[in-house]
């Protein structure tokens, strides 16, 4: 039987799709910053409006890699009917830099 490598993030979370970059790369203290909650709001809204997660992979590791290594100029192909203000809010929530996330609130 092949043993799976322990994935520490599974101790606290069930789905990699909702990880904020700082939750992946930083200490537990930094991972619980309020900006991480704003990231989660962005994931939920993006999924609601687009019908899919913004970062899609076959495994948690692939998803985490996309979240951490995606370029900051990432622009989704938005579905019709989503207002510009909602698009801007979602993109603000999904800002990779946790210190910039929410600056415009």
How would you sum up this structure, described in words?
Helix 3 packs across helix 5 (84-93). The chain has a domain at 14-71 and 79-93: Transferase(Phosphotransferase) domain 1 (Transferase(Phosphotransferase), domain 1), CATH 1.10.510.10. It has helices spanning 21-25, 28-31, 34-50, 60-69, 84-93. Mean pLDDT is 78; it is low at 1-13. The chain is an all-alpha fold and 105 residues long. The protein is built from 5 helices and no strands.
Indicate the percent of residues in helices: 40-55%
Q: Given this structure, which CATH class of the domain at 14-71 and 79-93 is correct? A: Mainly Alpha
Strand tally is: 0
Q: How would you spell out the order of helices and strands?
A: HHHHH
**Global shape:** globular
Question: Would you identify the regions where 5 or more consecutive residues have pLDDT less than 50?
Answer: 1-13
Keywords:
105 residues; Transferase(Phosphotransferase), domain 1; 44% helix; disordered N terminus
Quick structural gist:
The chain has 105 residues and is mainly α. The chain has helices at residues 21-25, 28-31, 34-50, 60-69, 84-93. It contains 5 helices and no strands.
Topology:
Blueprint: H1 21-25, H2 28-31, H3 34-50, H4 60-69, H5 84-93
